[in-house]
UniProtKB/TrEMBL annotation:
GO terms for biological process: base-excision repair. Residues 2-90 form the Formamidopyrimidine-DNA glycosylase catalytic domain. It comes from Sinobaca qinghaiensis. It is an enzyme of class 4 (lyase). GO terms for molecular function: class I DNA-(apurinic or apyrimidinic site) endonuclease activity; damaged DNA binding; oxidized pyrimidine nucleobase lesion DNA N-glycosylase activity; zinc ion binding. This is DNA-(apurinic or apyrimidinic site) lyase. Residues 238-272 form the FPG-type domain. InterPro entries: EcNei-like_N, FPG_cat, FPG_N, H2TH_FPG, Ribosomal_uS13-like_H2TH, Znf_DNA_glyclase/AP_lyase. Belongs to the FPG family.
Length: 273
């Protein structure tokens, strides 16, 4: 499933396309939405936001289109009315004179009045989105140490969208490595220094992944590994998907475990239990 940075990059592409001119035609695959198609004729897009793994396309007609890609959803941006060759099912199409923004395979799409957006069930319960709103390390430290979250294991806490929106499986492993925290710990088990490192790592890793197209190692390490001939996939992460390979910091073998029913990777020396 794409995580927050991937959805934000998709939103950037969609925004550039749909703001190129007023809507020429709107298409909804789901019957309960088709009555809205005429309401979008000649409407203009104001902006495209993300809230974790959800996307909000805001129009000047008082409506917002909410979508969540879930496991299989994918956006394509093409020249107007040019469709990709794919076996996926088209769920939403926004056409203007120059571009088409096309959402395939997504199962969760809704049309909301602007005043209904904040009360939509998924949006009402999620935590801050680092890529959509200014969030400081101090604010995240307070959130981490709050009664609601402090006694949760990091391995499950980081996947909880009500904690911080947009964190998924690869970011979970990478954030814990960057902070030097063992995945079996809780915030309550951590030192103040570890908690401060975790708050900063949340911001650093999400922003870095967004800016680099999914790379979570630092710029210097990425450049060094690229110079050695490593592919994008090989040089992308500190620990994620690297079980049995050597830690980039101290050479220890990376370990893989299952946590919250999903795979998690860590370095046992950089992240001591």
């Amino acid at each position: 499933m794409p995580e927050g940075p991937e959805i934000r990059r998709a939103a950037d592409q969609v925004e550039q396309a749909v703001k190129a001119g007023p809507v020429a035609e709107m298409y909804f695959a789901f019957p309960h939405l088709q009555s809205y198609e005429a309401s979008f004729a000649r409407a203009n897009v104001i902006k495209v936001e993300t809230r974790g793994k959800a996307m909000l396309i805001r129009f000047d007609n008082g409506y917002t289109i909410y979508s969540h890609n879930q496991l299989y959803g994918k956006w394509y941006v093409r020249s107007a009315y040019e469709y990709p060759v794919t076996k996926r099912q088209l769920r939403l199409a926004i056409h203007n004179e120059k571009k088409s923004a096309l959402l395939y395979s997504a199962s969760e799409i809704e049309v909301l009045r602007d005043e209904e957006v904040e009360d939509y069930p998924f949006l009402a319960k999620i935590g801050p989105d680092i890529l959509n709103q200014e969030t400081s390390p101090e604010e995240l430290y307070e959130r981490i140490t709050s009664r609601r979250f402090v006694n949760r294991k990091w391995s499950s806490l980081l996947l909880d969208q009500s904690f911080v929106a947009g964190i998924g499986n690869y970011l979970r492993s990478e954030i814990l490595f960057e902070a030097g925290i063992h995945p079996g710990k809780r915030p309550a088990d951590c030192t103040d220094e570890e908690l401060e490192q975790a708050a900063q790592a949340l911001i650093t890793l999400v922003e870095r992944s967004y800016q680099t197209g999914g790379i979570t190692v630092d710029e210097e390490t990425a450049a060094r590994l690229k110079k050695r001939g490593q592919s994008y996939a090989q040089r992308r992460h500190w620990v994620f998907n690297r079980d049995g390979e050597q830690c980039r910091i101290d050479g220890t073998d990376i370990q893989k475990i299952s946590a919250a029913s999903r795979r998690l990777y860590f370095c046992p020396t950089c992240q001591p239990e």
